[in-house]
Amino acid sequence: MNIKKLFSKYKENQAAIILYQREIEIRKRDLLPNMINTLSLVPVAHENTSTVESTVEKYGKDLDIRYFEEQIARARYDIQTVDALMALLNEETRNLIRMRLIEGIKTPEIAETLGICERDVYRKTNDALDKMDMLVGAIQRH
After folding, report:
1. Per-residue pLDDT reduced to its tens digit, 83-100
2. How do residues 18-66 score in pLDDT, each as one tens digit?
3. Which of 19, 49, 81, 103 has its CA 20 to 30 A from that of 114?
């Protein structure tokens, strides 16, 4: 697992969730006319299910919707992983990682904001990422 990439994709994953949810809604609307056209109070006997039930069942079986739901689940999992790893860091390192990797703020601006030199920004970021890489690697080996 590439920890740096995981952190740097944090906002991308947040955006992906929003966009995939939008795609699911659009896909459901595309399927909806079938449901509206067949909607009735009396079920039509086709293998003991109404056509409305069959159309609703399509939502669960639709490959596009399933793909979008899987992508949302992956993005949420990555976000939760980053949040959990961030909780392990001290406040200064957490702020540094958030600014540099998640928000994409340039090193000189981070150094000025935190009152440290640019070299320390690189060193502290790399040290934190190395420690998280080792921790995750140790866990994955077990």
Report:
1. 999 998 899 889 999 999
2. 999 999 999 888 877 655 555 444 455 555 555 555 555 555 678 889 9
3. 81
Question: Which domain range does residue 14 map to?
Answer: 8-80
Tokens 């639709």 belong to which residue? 62
52, 46 contact by CB (below 8 A): no
Q: How many separate domains does the chain show?
A: 2
Name the amino acid, one letter, at 132.
Answer: M
Dist. CA 137–CA 3, nearest whole Å:
10
- Dihedrals phi, psi of 49, to nearest 5 degrees: -130, 150
132: which 2 tokens?
């998280």
Strand partners, 49: 46
